[in-house]
Design brief:
Elements (H helix, E strand, L loop, with lengths): L3 E10 L2 E11 L4 E5 L6 H9 L6 E6 L2 E2 L10 E4 L11 H11 L4 H15 L14 H14 L4 E5 L7 H18 L2 E6 L2 H7 L2 E6 L2 E6 L1 H6 L4 H6 L6 E4 L18 E4 L13 E13 L3 E8 L5 E7 L9 E7 L4 E3 L11
Parallel strand pairs: 3-8, 3-9, 6-7, 7-8
Antiparallel strand pairs: 1-2, 1-4, 4-5, 9-10, 11-12, 12-17, 13-14, 13-16, 14-15
Helix pairs in contact: 2-3, 2-4, 3-4
The structure holds adenosine-5'-triphosphate (ATP) and magnesium ion.
Length: 348
Protein backbone atom coordinates (compact mmCIF):
# COMPACT_ATOMS: atom_id res chain seq x y z
CA UNK A 1 0.00 0.00 0.00
CA UNK A 2 1.11 3.55 -0.57
CA UNK A 3 0.40 7.23 -0.58
CA UNK A 4 0.26 9.09 -3.90
CA UNK A 5 1.25 12.75 -4.25
CA UNK A 6 0.88 14.89 -7.32
CA UNK A 7 2.78 18.18 -7.23
CA UNK A 8 2.04 20.86 -9.84
CA UNK A 9 1.51 18.13 -12.43
CA UNK A 10 1.16 19.35 -16.01
CA UNK A 11 0.65 17.77 -19.41
CA UNK A 12 0.67 19.48 -22.79
CA UNK A 13 -0.11 17.70 -26.06
CA UNK A 14 1.95 19.83 -28.42
CA UNK A 15 0.93 23.32 -27.37
CA UNK A 16 -2.49 22.18 -26.11
CA UNK A 17 -2.57 21.99 -22.30
CA UNK A 18 -4.61 18.99 -21.05
CA UNK A 19 -3.58 19.09 -17.36
CA UNK A 20 -2.58 22.53 -16.13
CA UNK A 21 -1.01 22.09 -12.70
CA UNK A 22 -2.69 19.62 -10.36
CA UNK A 23 -1.82 19.17 -6.69
CA UNK A 24 -3.24 16.21 -4.81
CA UNK A 25 -2.28 14.06 -1.83
CA UNK A 26 -3.90 10.65 -1.62
CA UNK A 27 -3.67 8.99 1.80
CA UNK A 28 -2.71 5.35 2.23
CA UNK A 29 -5.80 3.23 1.59
CA UNK A 30 -7.92 6.15 0.41
CA UNK A 31 -10.30 5.97 -2.58
CA UNK A 32 -10.17 9.23 -4.51
CA UNK A 33 -12.63 9.79 -7.35
CA UNK A 34 -11.71 12.18 -10.16
CA UNK A 35 -14.86 13.55 -11.72
CA UNK A 36 -15.49 16.17 -14.38
CA UNK A 37 -16.86 16.69 -17.88
CA UNK A 38 -15.53 15.04 -21.01
CA UNK A 39 -12.12 16.36 -22.01
CA UNK A 40 -11.23 17.92 -18.63
CA UNK A 41 -8.06 15.83 -18.29
CA UNK A 42 -9.10 12.93 -16.02
CA UNK A 43 -7.70 10.10 -18.16
CA UNK A 44 -4.57 12.07 -18.95
CA UNK A 45 -3.93 12.52 -15.22
CA UNK A 46 -4.49 8.83 -14.51
CA UNK A 47 -2.31 7.74 -17.42
CA UNK A 48 0.52 9.92 -16.16
CA UNK A 49 0.28 8.24 -12.75
CA UNK A 50 0.30 4.84 -14.47
CA UNK A 51 3.31 5.82 -16.57
CA UNK A 52 1.42 5.36 -19.85
CA UNK A 53 1.80 9.04 -20.64
CA UNK A 54 4.88 11.20 -20.15
CA UNK A 55 4.79 14.20 -17.81
CA UNK A 56 5.38 17.72 -19.16
CA UNK A 57 6.34 19.00 -15.71
CA UNK A 58 5.71 18.31 -12.04
CA UNK A 59 6.18 15.40 -9.66
CA UNK A 60 4.36 12.11 -9.06
CA UNK A 61 5.28 10.34 -5.85
CA UNK A 62 4.08 6.82 -5.09
CA UNK A 63 5.00 5.67 -1.61
CA UNK A 64 7.23 8.74 -1.25
CA UNK A 65 9.30 7.95 -4.37
CA UNK A 66 9.26 10.24 -7.41
CA UNK A 67 8.28 7.94 -10.28
CA UNK A 68 8.02 10.37 -13.20
CA UNK A 69 10.96 8.69 -14.90
CA UNK A 70 10.02 5.12 -13.87
CA UNK A 71 8.61 2.62 -16.34
CA UNK A 72 4.98 1.55 -15.78
CA UNK A 73 6.12 -1.89 -14.59
CA UNK A 74 8.33 -0.29 -11.92
CA UNK A 75 5.47 1.69 -10.36
CA UNK A 76 3.70 -1.18 -8.59
CA UNK A 77 0.22 -0.11 -9.68
CA UNK A 78 -2.59 -1.92 -11.50
CA UNK A 79 -4.99 -0.22 -13.87
CA UNK A 80 -8.56 -1.27 -14.77
CA UNK A 81 -9.87 0.22 -18.00
CA UNK A 82 -13.30 0.82 -19.45
CA UNK A 83 -12.87 -1.84 -22.15
CA UNK A 84 -11.33 -4.43 -19.74
CA UNK A 85 -8.65 -5.34 -22.31
CA UNK A 86 -8.87 -9.09 -21.59
CA UNK A 87 -6.94 -11.48 -23.83
CA UNK A 88 -9.73 -13.11 -25.91
CA UNK A 89 -7.85 -16.36 -26.66
CA UNK A 90 -6.99 -17.04 -23.01
CA UNK A 91 -9.28 -18.51 -20.37
CA UNK A 92 -10.22 -16.44 -17.35
CA UNK A 93 -7.55 -18.28 -15.39
CA UNK A 94 -5.03 -17.52 -18.13
CA UNK A 95 -5.94 -13.85 -18.01
CA UNK A 96 -5.52 -13.75 -14.25
CA UNK A 97 -2.20 -15.60 -14.31
CA UNK A 98 -0.62 -13.86 -17.27
CA UNK A 99 0.97 -10.89 -15.52
CA UNK A 100 2.23 -12.99 -12.62
CA UNK A 101 3.81 -15.59 -14.92
CA UNK A 102 5.55 -12.82 -16.84
CA UNK A 103 7.04 -11.59 -13.62
CA UNK A 104 8.31 -15.06 -12.75
CA UNK A 105 6.04 -15.49 -9.73
CA UNK A 106 6.36 -19.05 -8.31
CA UNK A 107 3.56 -21.48 -9.23
CA UNK A 108 2.17 -21.96 -5.68
CA UNK A 109 2.07 -18.18 -5.22
CA UNK A 110 0.19 -17.75 -8.53
CA UNK A 111 -2.33 -20.42 -7.50
CA UNK A 112 -2.82 -18.85 -4.08
CA UNK A 113 -3.45 -15.37 -5.51
CA UNK A 114 -5.75 -16.55 -8.30
CA UNK A 115 -7.81 -18.59 -5.85
CA UNK A 116 -8.07 -15.66 -3.45
CA UNK A 117 -9.11 -13.20 -6.19
CA UNK A 118 -11.61 -15.70 -7.62
CA UNK A 119 -13.11 -16.18 -4.14
CA UNK A 120 -13.38 -12.45 -3.47
CA UNK A 121 -14.98 -11.78 -6.85
CA UNK A 122 -17.02 -15.01 -6.95
CA UNK A 123 -15.68 -16.00 -10.36
CA UNK A 124 -14.34 -19.41 -9.33
CA UNK A 125 -16.83 -21.31 -11.54
CA UNK A 126 -15.83 -19.18 -14.56
CA UNK A 127 -12.08 -19.80 -14.49
CA UNK A 128 -11.96 -22.15 -17.49
CA UNK A 129 -14.19 -19.99 -19.74
CA UNK A 130 -13.05 -17.61 -22.45
CA UNK A 131 -13.94 -13.91 -22.14
CA UNK A 132 -16.48 -14.15 -24.98
CA UNK A 133 -18.42 -16.69 -22.89
CA UNK A 134 -18.91 -14.12 -20.11
CA UNK A 135 -21.47 -11.39 -19.51
CA UNK A 136 -20.34 -7.76 -19.32
CA UNK A 137 -20.42 -7.78 -15.54
CA UNK A 138 -18.44 -11.03 -15.37
CA UNK A 139 -15.78 -9.63 -17.71
CA UNK A 140 -15.59 -6.59 -15.52
CA UNK A 141 -14.94 -8.83 -12.52
CA UNK A 142 -12.17 -10.64 -14.36
CA UNK A 143 -10.57 -7.29 -15.19
CA UNK A 144 -10.76 -6.44 -11.49
CA UNK A 145 -9.33 -9.86 -10.65
CA UNK A 146 -6.36 -9.25 -12.88
CA UNK A 147 -5.63 -6.07 -10.92
CA UNK A 148 -6.13 -7.77 -7.54
CA UNK A 149 -3.75 -10.70 -8.19
CA UNK A 150 -0.94 -8.23 -8.73
CA UNK A 151 -1.34 -7.10 -5.09
CA UNK A 152 -0.25 -3.63 -6.17
CA UNK A 153 0.49 -0.57 -4.05
CA UNK A 154 -2.38 1.24 -5.81
CA UNK A 155 -5.33 0.69 -8.15
CA UNK A 156 -6.16 3.07 -10.98
CA UNK A 157 -9.62 2.83 -12.52
CA UNK A 158 -10.64 4.65 -15.70
CA UNK A 159 -14.43 4.50 -16.08
CA UNK A 160 -14.46 0.74 -15.44
CA UNK A 161 -18.26 0.54 -15.35
CA UNK A 162 -19.23 2.69 -18.31
CA UNK A 163 -19.85 -0.29 -20.63
CA UNK A 164 -22.37 -1.87 -18.27
CA UNK A 165 -26.12 -1.33 -18.19
CA UNK A 166 -27.55 0.90 -15.47
CA UNK A 167 -28.55 -1.87 -13.06
CA UNK A 168 -25.24 -3.70 -13.30
CA UNK A 169 -23.35 -0.46 -12.83
CA UNK A 170 -25.04 0.13 -9.50
CA UNK A 171 -24.33 -3.46 -8.45
CA UNK A 172 -20.65 -3.32 -9.48
CA UNK A 173 -20.25 0.09 -7.89
CA UNK A 174 -21.25 -1.36 -4.55
CA UNK A 175 -18.91 -4.32 -5.08
CA UNK A 176 -15.95 -2.12 -5.96
CA UNK A 177 -16.55 -0.08 -2.83
CA UNK A 178 -16.72 -3.19 -0.64
CA UNK A 179 -13.67 -4.65 -2.29
CA UNK A 180 -11.65 -1.49 -1.83
CA UNK A 181 -12.67 -1.28 1.85
CA UNK A 182 -11.63 -4.87 2.34
CA UNK A 183 -8.29 -4.68 0.54
CA UNK A 184 -7.57 -1.09 1.70
CA UNK A 185 -5.61 -0.43 -1.47
CA UNK A 186 -5.00 3.22 -2.31
CA UNK A 187 -7.14 3.97 -5.38
CA UNK A 188 -7.68 6.65 -7.98
CA UNK A 189 -11.00 6.22 -9.79
CA UNK A 190 -12.07 8.23 -12.83
CA UNK A 191 -15.69 8.72 -13.83
CA UNK A 192 -17.84 11.39 -15.39
CA UNK A 193 -20.89 9.96 -13.62
CA UNK A 194 -21.48 12.15 -10.60
CA UNK A 195 -23.67 9.62 -8.81
CA UNK A 196 -20.92 7.03 -9.09
CA UNK A 197 -18.47 9.64 -7.83
CA UNK A 198 -20.62 10.60 -4.84
CA UNK A 199 -21.24 7.04 -3.69
CA UNK A 200 -17.73 5.63 -4.15
CA UNK A 201 -15.42 8.36 -3.01
CA UNK A 202 -13.70 8.93 0.30
CA UNK A 203 -12.84 12.25 -1.30
CA UNK A 204 -13.88 13.75 -4.62
CA UNK A 205 -11.66 15.75 -6.92
CA UNK A 206 -13.82 17.84 -9.25
CA UNK A 207 -11.87 18.78 -12.38
CA UNK A 208 -12.67 21.28 -15.08
CA UNK A 209 -10.58 22.26 -18.06
CA UNK A 210 -7.31 20.73 -16.80
CA UNK A 211 -7.58 22.16 -13.30
CA UNK A 212 -8.94 21.07 -9.92
CA UNK A 213 -12.06 23.03 -8.96
CA UNK A 214 -12.56 21.47 -5.52
CA UNK A 215 -11.33 18.60 -3.36
CA UNK A 216 -13.45 17.33 -0.48
CA UNK A 217 -15.64 14.56 0.84
CA UNK A 218 -18.78 14.04 -1.26
CA UNK A 219 -20.83 15.69 1.49
CA UNK A 220 -18.56 18.73 1.68
CA UNK A 221 -18.64 19.18 -2.08
CA UNK A 222 -22.43 18.76 -2.24
CA UNK A 223 -23.21 20.95 0.76
CA UNK A 224 -20.71 23.70 -0.01
CA UNK A 225 -19.67 23.74 -3.66
CA UNK A 226 -16.70 26.11 -3.85
CA UNK A 227 -17.33 27.34 -7.39
CA UNK A 228 -20.21 27.92 -9.77
CA UNK A 229 -18.86 25.10 -11.90
CA UNK A 230 -19.02 22.58 -9.05
CA UNK A 231 -22.46 23.89 -8.06
CA UNK A 232 -23.76 23.14 -11.54
CA UNK A 233 -21.89 19.85 -11.97
CA UNK A 234 -22.58 17.99 -8.71
CA UNK A 235 -26.25 17.30 -8.01
CA UNK A 236 -29.10 15.93 -10.10
CA UNK A 237 -31.15 17.68 -11.26
CA UNK A 238 -28.50 20.42 -11.19
CA UNK A 239 -28.62 23.32 -8.76
CA UNK A 240 -30.71 26.27 -9.94
CA UNK A 241 -28.60 29.41 -10.32
CA UNK A 242 -30.74 32.53 -9.98
CA UNK A 243 -29.29 36.04 -10.53
CA UNK A 244 -29.81 38.26 -7.47
CA UNK A 245 -31.22 40.90 -9.84
CA UNK A 246 -34.27 38.71 -10.46
CA UNK A 247 -35.06 38.18 -6.76
CA UNK A 248 -37.87 40.27 -5.42
CA UNK A 249 -38.50 41.56 -1.92
CA UNK A 250 -35.93 42.94 0.49
CA UNK A 251 -32.76 41.34 -0.92
CA UNK A 252 -30.67 43.30 1.61
CA UNK A 253 -32.51 41.41 4.33
CA UNK A 254 -31.42 38.06 2.89
CA UNK A 255 -28.00 38.52 4.49
CA UNK A 256 -26.10 37.63 1.32
CA UNK A 257 -22.33 38.29 1.57
CA UNK A 258 -20.85 41.26 -0.32
CA UNK A 259 -20.17 40.54 -3.97
CA UNK A 260 -22.99 37.99 -4.33
CA UNK A 261 -24.67 38.41 -7.71
CA UNK A 262 -26.10 34.92 -8.15
CA UNK A 263 -27.56 32.39 -5.72
CA UNK A 264 -27.74 28.64 -6.06
CA UNK A 265 -30.82 26.77 -4.87
CA UNK A 266 -30.92 22.97 -4.97
CA UNK A 267 -34.11 21.52 -6.49
CA UNK A 268 -34.82 19.81 -3.15
CA UNK A 269 -34.36 23.13 -1.35
CA UNK A 270 -37.39 24.61 -3.16
CA UNK A 271 -40.84 24.37 -1.57
CA UNK A 272 -44.38 25.17 -2.66
CA UNK A 273 -45.43 25.94 0.91
CA UNK A 274 -43.88 28.72 2.92
CA UNK A 275 -41.40 27.31 5.47
CA UNK A 276 -41.43 28.65 9.03
CA UNK A 277 -37.78 29.75 8.68
CA UNK A 278 -36.87 33.03 6.91
CA UNK A 279 -37.15 32.39 3.17
CA UNK A 280 -37.30 34.06 -0.20
CA UNK A 281 -40.27 33.87 -2.51
CA UNK A 282 -40.23 33.41 -6.28
CA UNK A 283 -43.36 33.92 -8.37
CA UNK A 284 -43.53 31.44 -11.22
CA UNK A 285 -45.66 29.63 -13.76
CA UNK A 286 -45.69 25.85 -13.90
CA UNK A 287 -44.33 24.51 -17.18
CA UNK A 288 -44.04 20.77 -16.74
CA UNK A 289 -44.45 18.10 -14.08
CA UNK A 290 -42.26 15.01 -14.45
CA UNK A 291 -43.17 12.16 -12.08
CA UNK A 292 -40.09 9.97 -11.51
CA UNK A 293 -41.46 7.50 -8.98
CA UNK A 294 -41.37 8.55 -5.33
CA UNK A 295 -40.86 12.19 -6.24
CA UNK A 296 -41.52 14.56 -9.12
CA UNK A 297 -39.55 17.22 -10.91
CA UNK A 298 -41.56 20.37 -11.31
CA UNK A 299 -40.28 22.77 -13.97
CA UNK A 300 -41.40 26.35 -13.47
CA UNK A 301 -40.62 29.66 -15.18
CA UNK A 302 -39.88 32.70 -13.02
CA UNK A 303 -42.18 35.63 -13.73
CA UNK A 304 -39.44 38.18 -12.95
CA UNK A 305 -36.88 37.00 -15.50
CA UNK A 306 -38.38 34.18 -17.54
CA UNK A 307 -35.70 31.78 -16.22
CA UNK A 308 -36.70 28.11 -15.88
CA UNK A 309 -35.90 26.37 -12.60
CA UNK A 310 -36.53 22.85 -11.31
CA UNK A 311 -38.03 21.74 -8.00
CA UNK A 312 -37.87 18.23 -6.55
CA UNK A 313 -41.16 17.66 -4.80
CA UNK A 314 -42.32 14.57 -2.90
CA UNK A 315 -44.95 12.33 -4.45
CA UNK A 316 -47.04 13.40 -7.44
CA UNK A 317 -48.61 16.74 -6.66
CA UNK A 318 -51.79 17.58 -8.52
CA UNK A 319 -50.72 20.74 -10.27
CA UNK A 320 -52.08 21.69 -13.64
CA UNK A 321 -49.47 22.87 -16.09
CA UNK A 322 -49.62 26.66 -16.65
CA UNK A 323 -50.81 27.22 -13.03
CA UNK A 324 -49.25 30.16 -11.21
CA UNK A 325 -47.26 29.15 -8.08
CA UNK A 326 -45.06 30.64 -5.39
CA UNK A 327 -41.74 28.90 -4.80
CA UNK A 328 -40.02 29.30 -1.42
CA UNK A 329 -36.39 28.68 -0.45
CA UNK A 330 -34.93 29.00 3.04
CA UNK A 331 -32.25 31.68 3.26
CA UNK A 332 -29.95 29.19 5.01
CA UNK A 333 -30.21 26.92 1.95
CA UNK A 334 -28.95 29.55 -0.50
CA UNK A 335 -25.49 29.15 -2.04
CA UNK A 336 -24.09 32.64 -2.75
CA UNK A 337 -21.66 33.12 -5.66
CA UNK A 338 -19.95 35.87 -7.64
CA UNK A 339 -20.09 35.40 -11.40
CA UNK A 340 -16.83 37.30 -12.07
CA UNK A 341 -14.67 35.11 -9.82
CA UNK A 342 -16.93 32.07 -10.22
CA UNK A 343 -16.45 31.43 -6.50
CA UNK A 344 -18.57 31.24 -3.34
CA UNK A 345 -18.81 34.52 -1.54
CA UNK A 346 -19.28 33.10 1.96
CA UNK A 347 -15.88 31.43 2.30
CA UNK A 348 -13.88 33.28 4.93
N1 LIG B 1 -3.00 11.74 -27.32
C1 LIG B 1 -3.53 12.97 -27.34
N2 LIG B 1 -3.12 13.91 -28.22
C2 LIG B 1 -3.64 15.14 -28.21
N3 LIG B 1 -4.60 15.58 -27.37
C3 LIG B 1 -5.05 14.70 -26.48
C4 LIG B 1 -4.57 13.35 -26.41
N4 LIG B 1 -5.22 12.71 -25.40
C5 LIG B 1 -6.07 13.60 -24.89
N5 LIG B 1 -5.99 14.80 -25.52
C6 LIG B 1 -6.74 16.01 -25.20
O1 LIG B 1 -6.50 16.34 -23.83
C7 LIG B 1 -7.69 16.76 -23.18
C8 LIG B 1 -7.98 15.88 -22.00
O2 LIG B 1 -8.31 14.56 -22.46
P1 LIG B 1 -8.66 13.37 -21.47
O3 LIG B 1 -8.72 12.13 -22.28
O4 LIG B 1 -7.70 13.40 -20.33
O5 LIG B 1 -10.11 13.80 -20.98
P2 LIG B 1 -11.12 13.04 -20.00
O6 LIG B 1 -11.38 13.98 -18.87
O7 LIG B 1 -10.62 11.70 -19.68
O8 LIG B 1 -12.44 12.96 -20.90
P3 LIG B 1 -13.54 11.76 -21.06
O9 LIG B 1 -14.49 11.92 -19.91
O10 LIG B 1 -14.20 12.10 -22.37
O11 LIG B 1 -12.83 10.45 -21.07
C9 LIG B 1 -8.77 16.74 -24.26
O12 LIG B 1 -8.90 18.04 -24.76
C10 LIG B 1 -8.23 15.81 -25.30
O13 LIG B 1 -8.70 16.15 -26.58
MG1 LIG C 1 -11.26 9.75 -20.15
Amino acid sequence: MATISLIDLKKNYGDVPAVKGVNLSVADGELIVLVGPSGCGKSTLLRMVAGLESVTSGVIEIGGRNVVKAEPAERDIAMVFQNYALYPHMSVRGNLEYGLKNRGTPREEIDRRVKEAADILEIGPLLERKPRQLSGGQRQRVAMGRAIVREPAAFLFDEPLSNLDAKLRVQMRVEIRKLQRRLKTTSLYVTHDQLEAMTLADRLVVMNNGLVEQIGTPTEVYDRPATLFVAGFIGSPPMNLVPVSSLSGDVAGFGLPAGTDIVGIRPDGCFLEKPSEPSLTLDANVELLEPIGGESHLHVRLKSSGQSIVLSVPGRPEIAETTSVQVFARLTDLHPFNTQTGRRTDIV
